[in-house]
Structure formats: structure tokens, C-alpha cells
Design goal:
This protein is mainly β and about 120 residues long. It is about 0% helix and about 55% strand.
């Protein structure tokens, strides 16, 4: 059974920084990423990284957030700089493993990020 352990959320003032980490059990995953969900809004992609280092970011976080991964310890990190109040949300780690035409999808429990103005 895959387990995802998230850490690093918290409260920060606008303009500050936070670093989220997600450690996954099991074998290497094809993609590791972060999603977020603000109150009353749908869950949205923040950033994703493939096992060969290709990244994709939401337009709203480009230039401010950086996703990285360490395959040796099966961990993905999200460095969040220049945080804005609109970044406030619960952030969820997501990992995916592709097997032929199927995809295994796993989610973390979520970590709260609150940015005060």
C-alpha cells in the first residue's frame, strides 16, 4: 500500500516562503506533484514533475514556485516563494504510476498553507 507523508505547511505573511515535502513509499512513480484546493473552489494542479525531471506549473505560480524530486528517497519538494494570500489552500501531494493503459493514482492527506496579507 502506498503511503504519502506530507510536511511543511503553515502560516506565512505575504511575500514569504514555504517548502512542502512529500515522501512516498514504494517504488518510483512516473509523476509526483502538488495540487491545491481553496475553500469553495475546485482542486487545481499547482506543479508536477516526471521521473526524468520534466516539470509543469500552473500559470499562477510560474516564476514563484519550484518543484523538485529526489528519486533516491522518493520525495518531491515544492519551494514556494513570494507567496500571496490567494495561494492560501490545502495542498495535496499526488503521485502516479503508469502501467500499460492503466494509471495508479495516490493522494496525500493534505497540508494547510495560509498566507496572510
Amino acid at each position: 500500500q502506498v503511503q504519502l507523508v506530507e510536511s511543511g505547511g503553515g502560516l506565512v505573511q505575504a511575500g514569504g516562503s514555504l517548502r512542502l515535502s512529500c515522501e512516498a513509499s514504494g517504488s518510483i512513480f512516473n509523476t509526483m506533484g502538488w495540487y491545491r484546493q481553496a475553500p469553495g473552489k475546485q482542486r487545481e494542479l499547482v506543479a508536477v514533475i516526471t521521473n526524468n525531471g520534466r516539470t509543469n506549473y500552473a500559470d499562477s505560480v510560474k516564476g514563484r514556485f519550484t518543484i523538485s524530486r529526489d528519486n533516491a528517497v522518493n520525495t518531491a519538494n515544492l519551494q514556494m516563494n513570494s507567496l500571496k494570500p490567494e495561494d492560501t489552500a490545502v495542498y495535496y501531494c499526488n503521485v502516479q504510476r503508469f502501467r500499460g493503459y492503466t494509471r495508479d493514482d495516490y493522494w496525500g492527506q493534505g497540508t494547510q498553507v495560509t498566507v496572510s496579507s
